[in-house]
Design a protein that fits this description.
400 residues; mainly alpha; 20 helices
């Protein structure tokens, strides 16, 4: 009993360090030097035996989240098993750089742990670190470590939610217009979410709940595939003419991403529509004349086909995992958010987790998130917190 109490006491030391760590990210940014992703991954692996039992020992029947999470786990393992020994031995570094989405998966258990420890203190006075972090996170910018800091930091400010929401709204709008003009799409969408959620919370939840169906996943998949096929002709004209083909109406960054998405999707459709190009493989052929515009973004990087990302989670999942992986992954997210909707209709105490995770997912639609060693662990950790939230309220949809 004594050892158990000692462990419980020491476990709380994690949070001051965690808050301080993310506060440093917010203030000066240490994304590339502190290796948060690898730390989260290792901690998640250590905790996995405990939280696997928690997740799968919760009910006597199978739940939709359990089923979709199990299928996603098995599918990722099958994709990893599909990597050839030849590819791994040829250049281990290049192979490793294609794997953050997969190896960071264990961060789900770290997220479960964080939520549980936060709940142990939910009725107690928050750490001073929580409030400092919550205030600092208001000025979080377009990086994901500060966004994740907001998820845990905003708990310390939950009693001042309306005031904080207004400050977040104006802060996001200010940064959209004046501070981060190159990332205005992501910042604008996140600002819009804060505005809509703050003033029309119930309507916001009702709309998202209505959109959360398996049909939506198939609809999105069909749209991105068909639109890319239809745009393939323009893409061929683009790589023959160059950026001048589009004139001066669209900025180069937007053209670069859009054309790279078209190339990646159409290539996957032609090579392996169902299962994608897999892990350990180059995202493109460096000798292909169609992708020279991609190579010009970093011509001196010999590892570019393995390290570069498509800057879009939808395109990345489809390219690497194919249509099968796309459907499984987004089915899992759909079931997770469905359960969260039921909780949010009952209480507003956990809005910070929901909005924070949704902001990370929105960032993933336009930036490098799920596929990079900088942010993949943060993404999966926030997902783990969402899973823990649904388990706390026993709102899982059962499969009888």
């Amino acid at each position: 009993m004594k050892n158990s109490l000692q462990f419980r006491s020491k476990s709380h030391l994690v949070f001051p360090l965690l808050y301080l760590y993310f506060l440093l990210h917010v203030v000066i940014g240490l994304e590339r030097t502190l290796y948060a992703n690898e730390f989260f991954t290792i901690v998640g692996l250590i905790l996995s035996p405990i939280y696997v039992q928690r997740i799968y020992g919760f009910k006597q029947y199978i739940t939709r989240i359990q089923l979709s999470l199990t299928l996603l786990t098995l599918y990722i393992f099958l994709q990893l098993a599909g990597m050839s020994v030849r590819d791994i031995s040829r250049n281990p570094y290049e192979v490793f750089r294609t794997l953050p989405f997969a190896y960071s998966f264990s961060c789900i258990f770290f997220g479960f742990y964080i939520f549980e420890k936060m709940e142990e203190r939910r009725l107690k006075k928050p750490y001073i670190f929580e409030r400092i972090l919550g205030i600092a996170s208001i000025f979080l910018g377009n990086k994901l470590s500060p966004t994740f800091a907001a998820i845990i930091g905003m708990r310390g400010l939950r009693h001042y939610k309306s005031i904080v929401s207004l400050i977040l709204i104006f802060g996001a709008i200010f940064k959209t217009v004046f501070v981060y003009p190159d990332t205005k799409v992501t910042a604008a969408l996140i600002a819009l979410i804060f505005i809509f959620f703050s003033f029309y919370r119930n309507l916001f939840l009702k709309i998202l709940d209505g959109l959360s169906s398996i049909k939506s996943i198939f609809f999105v998949l069909v749209i991105i595939v068909l639109s890319s096929i239809l745009l393939k002709t323009k893409y061929q004209q683009f790589y023959s003419v160059g950026y001048e083909f589009f004139g001066n109406t669209i900025d180069v960054n937007t053209i670069w991403r859009g054309m790279f998405w078209v190339y990646s999707i159409t290539r996957t459709v032609s090579e392996n529509f169902l299962f994608g190009i897999g892990f350990g493989t180059p995202l493109f052929d460096a000798n292909d004349p169609q992708v020279q515009f991609v190579i010009m973004s970093s011509p001196a990087d010999e590892h570019l086909p393995y390290t570069l990302s498509v800057h879009n989670a939808l395109v990345y999942i489809f390219t690497r995992l194919g249509a099968v992986g796309f459907i499984i992954f987004f089915w899992f997210l759909l079931e997770l958010f469905r359960s969260a909707f039921k909780i949010l209709k009952r209480t507003g105490d956990f809005d910070y987790i929901y909005i924070g995770t949704l902001s990370i997912i929105i960032s993933a639609l336009f930036n490098v998130v799920v596929e990079t060693p900088l942010f993949a662990g943060i993404f999966w950790t926030s997902i783990g917190m969402m899973i823990a939230l649904t388990y706390k309220f026993s709102t899982l949809s059962a499969i009888r």
